[in-house]
Specification:
Layout: H1 13-25, E1 32-33, H2 34-41, H3 45-57, E2 61-64, E3 67-70, H4 81-84, H5 89-100, E4 108-112, H6 116-125, E5 131-135, H7 138-144, E6 150-154, E7 158-159, E8 166-167, H8 169-176, E9 180-186, E10 189-191, E11 195-198, H9 201-212, E12 214-220, E13 232-235, E14 242-246, H10 251-259, E15 263-267
Parallel strand pairs: 4-5, 4-9, 5-6, 9-12, 12-14, 14-15
Antiparallel strand pairs: 1-3, 2-3, 7-8, 10-11, 11-13
Helix pairs in contact: 5-6, 6-7, 8-9
Length: 269
């Protein structure tokens, strides 16, 4: 298996931050000019053109003469995991540490879905003895597979290029064949109305299989995900026991989630 450092990721954190900033400028649906982008981001036109070419290849925007415009609903598009790795990083690390505290000591089994926040949880758990970790996320498996103190179980399945997650019937069959103490679930949105949701319906079915065979479900989501509803439901709120988020989350939405019976843990950012 490749070393964790070989996992697919953005060329650099600085570049991924810049590309996320480009997408943010397109959230209103308007076009932006090359002059606007170079002025706002403080880089050369050649650098911006390379970024725009990459983002267009991923169908996240459309290049125009002298700039770019949003591709369909870019503001609600699924940002590839290699860019998400640097987004809200400090909050995700604190959320991960708090979520890891919920895992009891001693022999225990944990399922971990794909996502950048769940990957941070896996990093925290990597030093724990006697853990069995089941995951369908290639990046997470590569991060922890070299740890002799862990038993790492990787599902099969079809790998999604945006998230590096194995999904589909093979992955679902793996989750259906086992039982775990806790499932750590990443999400693109969590709300009282929509439950825990994601952008891809096949990924949602796979994660629902994981959730259905866990004694406890912990959702980890930075504040930007709270109150957001995306395409496909992974879990009803009735299936979620704990939400770990941060202080940027909408307090009114958190109150509605608590009223639905979910324990909410909030970390400072």
């Amino acid at each position: 298996m490749p070393h964790p450092q070989d996992a697919p990721r953005a060329t650099s954190r600085k570049r991924s931050d810049r590309m996320l900033a480009v997408l943010a400028m397109l959230e209103s649906g308007d076009s932006v000019t090359l002059k606007d982008l170079t002025g706002a981001l403080g880089v050369s036109p050649a650098t911006i053109r390379r970024d725009l070419a990459d983002l267009e290849e991923q169908r996240l925007l459309v290049r125009t003469h002298g700039g770019a415009r949003a591709f369909a609903s870019t503001s609600r598009a699924e940002v590839p995991v290699r860019l998400r790795d640097s987004q809200f990083r400090a909050a995700k690390q604190r959320i991960a540490r708090r979520a890891a505290e919920l895992i009891p000591t001693g022999p225990y089994s944990v399922a971990i879905s794909g996502g950048t926040t769940t990957a941070e949880v896996a990093k925290v758990l990597a030093t724990r003895p006697d853990l069995a970790i089941v995951t369908n996320a290639l990046t997470t498996a590569m991060e922890i597979a070299s740890r002799p103190n862990l038993k790492v179980i990787m599902t099969g399945g079809v790998v999604r290029s945006n998230s590096f997650e194995a999904v589909g019937v093979i992955a679902e069959n793996t989750f259906n064949a086992i039982n775990v103490g806790t499932a750590i679930l990443g999400t693109d949105g969590i709300s009282a109305a929509g439950g825990a949701t994601t952008h891809d319906e096949t990924e949602a079915r796979t994660n629902n299989a994981m959730v259905s065979h866990a004694q406890r479900v912990v959702v980890v989501a930075d504040g930007s995900k709270v109150g957001r509803v995306t395409l496909a439901k992974m879990a009803d709120l009735s299936q979620v026991h704990v939400l770990v988020t941060d202080t940027t989350a909408d307090p009114d939405e958190l109150a509605r989630i608590v009223a639905a019976g979910v324990e909410v843990l909030i970390v400072d950012v």
